[in-house]
Specification:
The protein has 334 residues and is an alpha+beta fold. It contains 8 helices and 11 strands. 42% of the residues lie in helices and 22% in strands.
């Protein structure tokens, strides 16, 4: 934290508003954690002092036990955050949702998964901003990207990246047959402006277009939406939610930087895994979780074996079971 606070003393630090915002958020988050641990220490010291005079006071003994149980529960909850020690865990993230195979049903399922993350953000007190949204012609969405801002947003959500499989009775099938749909989720850290990601402007193809959608006040009449293609990598990002073309371009560049950073990190990881003989090809076939509505109700993570029958609760944003189990599994080496 001292290093981050030292950065704020640089006279030019506040010239870069985006980086200043990110660093300030991290300092605030670290201070909050430090204050909480100090509070635990102070509370335990107080209980220890009370315990020395509580030998003959039964009511005071009971009060100390209640307070001690509360502190233990709070400590256990905070210990969980010790699992979030990897680079970028404390920061914000982009979550992209893509409808896969399954036609209209897959697009509707993609909308369900998107809402799940929006509800999760709401439960955690995070801020969620829609960056890009491409709706389906009949229902649901083809793809969408949201930026989730809050303490440890990336660390908590990074395990959601992968293919999600949904099995249900299709509302878009005349025979009401069981349908299997797939949704791809990408999770990328919002990269600190201080991290050096070289982007040659000559490598970018920038297009502007009118925002698409179902209509209404959120659809612009002017060509304010921005699509950026990074030619060397083939990465395409788009933003159409802001009315300002400049704001859309800035958000698109943030997404591009996050994707390029993630691409480099994945290359490094693959190289390390290949040296150890552990490389596994990432593809649509490698699903991480299944949501089964029929013939029974169950959500199961295929990496950690965590499962629950409370599927409605999960898709309403209660992901704590899967987030915690993934972090424990990831810490143990997967």
């Amino acid at each position: 934290m001292a290093t981050l606070e030292g950065q704020t003393l640089d006279p030019i630090f506040w010239n870069d508003h985006e980086r200043a915002k990110i660093v300030s958020q991290r300092i605030t988050g670290l201070k909050k954690l430090l204050d909480e641990w100090k509070g635990f220490e102070q509370k335990l010291d107080e209980l220890s002092e009370f315990a020395t005079v509580a030998d003959t006071d039964v009511s005071l003994q009971q009060e100390i036990e209640v307070e001690l149980s509360a502190v233990e529960a709070a400590l256990k909850q905070r210990e969980f955050y010790l699992l979030l020690s990897e680079p970028h865990d404390q920061g914000n993230c982009f979550v992209s949702v893509h409808a896969g195979t399954g036609g209209v049903d897959a697009q509707d399922c993609a909308a369900i998964i998107l809402r799940m993350y929006l509800r999760y953000a709401d439960r955690k007190g995070f801020k969620a901003d829609m960056i890009n949204l491409q709706e389906g012609e009949e229902a649901g969405i083809k793809k969408a990207t949201i930026e989730i801002s809050g303490d440890f947003a990336y660390g908590l959500l990074k395990g959601e990246a992968g293919v999600h499989r949904i099995v249900r009775l299709s509302p878009y099938n005349a025979q009401n047959l069981r349908q299997t749909s797939f949704v791809l989720v990408e999770v990328m850290p919002v990269v600190d402006q201080g991290i050096d990601i070289q982007i040659n402007q000559d490598d970018l193809k920038i297009d502007t277009f009118k925002s698409s959608g179902a209509g209404g006040q959120h659809v612009n009449k002017t060509s304010s939406a921005v699509r950026i293609t990074h030619v060397p990598s083939g990465i395409i990002v788009a933003c159409q939610q802001e009315r300002s073309q400049l704001q859309n371009k800035e958000n698109a560049m943030k997404m591009l930087k996050a994707k390029l950073y993630q691409l480099e990190e994945e290359k490094r990881l693959v190289q390390n895994q290949e040296l150890r003989g552990e490389h596994k090809q990432g593809s649509w076939g490698n699903q991480i979780r299944s949501y089964v509505y029929q013939p029974y109700q169950m959500v199961k993570d295929h990496r950690t074996d965590a499962e629950t029958s409370a599927i409605d609760d999960v898709v309403d944003g209660n992901l704590d079971l899967f987030v915690e189990k993934f972090l424990e599994w990831n810490k143990a080496g997967g």
